[in-house]
Amino acid sequence: MADDVQQIIGYLNDGPGKGQSYERLAVFTDTIGHRLAGSAEMDQAVEYMLSAMHADGLENVHGESASIPRWTRGSESATMFSPRTKNLAILGLGSSVGTPIVGITAPVIVVKTFDELRSRGEEARGKIVVFNQAWQGSYGATVEYRTRGAVEAAKVGALAALIRSVTQFSLYTPHTGSMRYEDGVEKIPGACITVEDAELMQRMTDRGQEVVVQLQMEARTHANVESMNVVAEIKGSTYPEQVVLVSGHLDSWDVGQGAMDDGGGALISWQALSVIKHLGLRPKRTLRAVLWNAEEIGAVGALNYYNEHKMEVADMDMVMESDSGVFYPTGLEFTGSEEATAILAEIMRYMEPFNASAVLPGGGGADITFWIQDGVPGGSLGNRNEKYFDYHHTEADTMTVLDPSEMDKCATLWAIAAYCVANLDEMLPR
User: In angstroms, how far is CA 356 from the centroid of its own chain?
Assistant: First the structure.
């Protein structure tokens, strides 16, 4: 297997595959742009990838249908009229309702926590709640304000919620993302604002000034539409029914190019199969790439795929998802048994020349979590993504964020991990 791995390394870093992941992604994102689930652009992306992966010589290239929720942003704006006039940069949140045609004009109350909102509930009634929450130490902890902000504001009688973007760094860039409603609670509009404007309104209200904002949003949810996950394979030579799955999600939010989130993860998953195909290698087990649909709005495509294939769980050897950037790799994040972890540690030694051989706890991803919960070993790409949330869900998520050489090394790690696991004598122990 060592000789095969050296071929993979050479092909992707010094041979025909050098710069290929980046260039393929650039052509794809420059051609189609962002790819909101349920949109015409997402349909174009699916057809593009089906055609490209078929032309690349991969096997069993096909789409698997899924019913996808469709939400559209429409026109949106926010303007502060008091104590001075200022346009506010906003991005409505996915699944948000819109405002009335005339908009919502109301005084603002600024709070830093849900507890503060509850303690000032009477004061918030009939107002627009601005959440100026601090970074809570992680994305997972902080994003609760984005997902739950409108619900919590509605519970105290607020008219709308404006949430400070979930990021540690801002160049006046609002960050969108999903939100959710709760049965029995009135649906009010939710949008993200910049860190700078959240802090501006905090300072103004702290001085006792009344801040008045007009919010207009045309957001609406439509009937579900049919779309597809994209699937391609290299059939296993000995155990074709057993599968090592690599993946990334093809959809994005309707801003930027969706290059980092998650075009890069989708492309290195295609590239992992591509290099193995073009080197004429065939592992013992099937390698399957899945480019997920509608991850951003709740892993809808992945859940549909799981429901259609969950009877195959005993033959799913390992599932992998790259959805946290394709910056310089550090290793493989992994969830599995101690025995499986030890096997992955041996495989990852092939990445020592790149200083990217770590096997770290916590492998997973929104699209593969169903399989991991069923006991299937799961992996995700570890990479130096400290700046990931600077660009996440913004107009700044473009090809400029990414580096061709770093993507090559991510594809190298992805291909080596998948190929070596698929070529073991036995499935990974659970």
Answer: 22
Cβ count near 396 (within 10 Å)? 18
Q: Hey, what are 319's tokens?
A: 């599932």
pTM value is: 0.96
Instruction: Give the active site residue among 76, 152, 295, 296.
Output: 295
Quick one: CA dihedral 313, 316, 317, 319, positive or negative?
negative
Tens digits of per-residue pLDDT, 219-247? Answer: 999 999 999 999 999 999 999 999 999 99
Average pLDDT, the chain: 98
Which residues sit opposite 233 in a β-bridge? 59, 288
Question: pLDDT below 50 — which residues of the chain?
Answer: none
Concerning whether 395 is annotated as a catalytic residue, the answer is no
Between CA 417 and CA 297 the distance in angstroms is 29
How crowded is residue 265: how many other Cβ atoms within 10 Å of its Cβ?
30
Taking each helix axis as running N to C, give the angle between helix 2-13 and helix 404-422, from 0 to 180 degrees, rounded to the nearest 10. 160
Sign of the torsion angle spanned by Cα atoms 41, 296, 391, 24: negative
Alpha carbons within 13 angstroms on the beta-carbon side of residue 81 total 10
For 25, which DSSP code? H
The pairing of strands 329-335 and 316-321 is: unpaired
Q: For residue range 144-198, list pLDDT tens digits in order.
A: 999 999 999 999 999 999 999 999 999 999 999 999 999 999 999 999 999 999 9
Closest CA to 366 of 100, 178, 220: 178
Query: Do residues 162 and 77 touch, judged by C-beta distance below 8 A?
Result: no
- CA 170, 171, 174, 178 torsion: positive or negative? negative
Residues 6+ apart with CB under 8 A from 321: 246, 247, 248, 265, 364, 365, 366, 367, 368, 378, 379, 380
